[in-house]
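Sequence in, structure out.
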Amino acid sequence: MSNPEMLRALKAIVGTNWCLDTPADLMAYSYDATPLYQHVPDAVVVPGTVEEVAAVMKVAEEHRIPIVPRGSGTNLSAGTVPTSGGLVVGLNRLNQVKEIDQENMTATFEPGVVTAKFHQQVEAVGLFYPPDPGSMTISTLGGNIAECAGGLRGLKYGVTKDYIIGLQAVLADGRILQIGGKNAKDVAGYDLVKLFVGSEGTLGLVTEATARLIPLPETRRTALAMFTDLTGAARSVSRIIAARIIPATLEFLDNATIRVVEDYARIGLNTEAGALLLMQQDGTEAVSERDIARMAAICKEEGAFEVRLAQDPVEEAALMSARRAALSALARKKPTTILEDATVPRKHLAEMVEQINRIARKYSVEICTFGHAGDGNLHPTCMTDERDREEIHRVEQAFEEIFDAALRLGGTITGEHGVGEAKAGFLEWRVGSTGIELMKGIKAVFDPHHLLNPGKLFARENRRRVVVRS
């Protein structure tokens, strides 16, 4: 770091071992799970208490140095890449579940708690925290809050913002803000908790959170249906919802993804299938059995040529792996894997997948699509090589047109990955210039010197939208 005085101040706060400035350490914090983005920070600090976080923030404000909060770095929108340099604040040492309150059915935890480990702790006492992002074995709850993470259970149970009811956060000037709590009802003033969830580290650093929990479902049942074409799968999704069944999981894989997953996982998928639906229901044994049978019957009526019902937990895990293995399987194909998310109203699911396939052909790029069929959140995933700059340009053109297609169908540019820096140029397409102006006004109140995660959410340069007609 070029400022020795600041470096000494930071080391005095967190200790020499937790203030990192060697080239190897800085390189490790220069990227996240998003391809194509990388920048070395000036320094990295890893505070161990909220008081240390507050002191670090005061030093950063005094020296006007950018702050980039970071958990495990699993996000897919370049949300934790320090593209303006500055100071990365790692929150992984704040990793305690402070309380599981069974009487109030809440849990209070620090941001560095790994999501899957939190699931295990609350389920051990018969409670349930539904948000289950694909990266949950690595991602932290603080990162989930920053991005408002979703997951496979989003259709039935909602996403992170539906469960976070209290927060402690450190503001840009080092003040500690305490908002919300355990109350089931609380309408005292603006809902600042919801404002922070999904704010991507641009308003403050979350140092503690309280989540509401629900009873752990008694049982679950899982089935997989294979279709000759996408249309039958899409009709099945519509009919399942129309039948007033809200599945715990209703996932979709297209043919290209099925082929890659089967080559990777070897779980007996028919690679000639045009589409696959993975269905799961939970609740009482009677409800789970009834609903999974009704969903299987609907799929058969809509042309599914194979329906498999899991007979035991081992087979259930194998079927679920068909979806959870998708990204890992696709990542084996080429050096660079760009996983995006675009959401449309679920009635447009088939049309959106057809648009993605058309766009992929137009730009001669390889895109496989999977995602959350029940809530219309699709993950078009491109296998490419970032060293081939001409192909990367075509990939960027393809995704720009994919986002345009989603918006024309009444959808959005991101359902759960966040905006970050990767999609900042598209945000105005979604919220309009007035929306951007209001968001920037909110940002200025919390962060008047624009030190918190600069370049995220708000584009350095907005993209001009050229509406493309198919």
